[in-house]
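Lab notebook, bench 4. The sequencing result for the construct came back, and we need a structural model before the next group meeting so we can plan mutations. Quick request posted to the team channel:

Model the 3D structure of this chain.
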Amino acid sequence: MTTAPATTGQARLAAFASALDDCHERAVPGGAVASRTGWTVASAERLADGSPVPGAAGLLTARRNAATADARALDVFCAALLRLHWQTLRDALDTAVGRLDERESEGTSLLGRQLVRGAVADVALALSGTRDLLDLPAQTPERRHRAHRDLVAAGRTALRLHGAHGFTADGAGTLLHMTELLGNTYLHAEAAHD
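Done. Here's the predicted structure in token form:
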């Protein structure tokens, strides 16, 4: 019996799940970090007793824990999670720019359109500003929450650059949604006020 090869979207989601596990590994080797509200999200391999995360094709699971992670582990994990979110958005922008450059309308590359260039610039500026914010020493929950908010807004702009393709199984929408979900779990507004 042969199995069908994974779609590009499934392969990217599997790589994302592995990268999320790397974030956990940095903070708690061999374990998984629980958010301040007690939720843990990780790959199905790392968190085998969790419930499947909707939209993650069974590759990510979530579990409610009785205890939350210690402050140091949560700080290390949140810093790594934000870098994963940043990289995911950067990849989505790069893919969108490549697709737009290949497509034409009325004999002109879609990437040459003023509104498209403006949207690309908005995402690139958000990436640059967020990278600078993440590079500052002494990260705080407030700063992380702001970075998450900025990345989510830029991600929504980047998703529009993908057009309808962004919402397909192979599109960028799934990973951008997962980064938003993870940020809302680990970097939600209440955590920024603790």
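The domain at 8-23+70-192 is CATH 1.20.140.10 (Butyryl-CoA Dehydrogenase, subunit A; domain 3).
Will bring this to the meeting.
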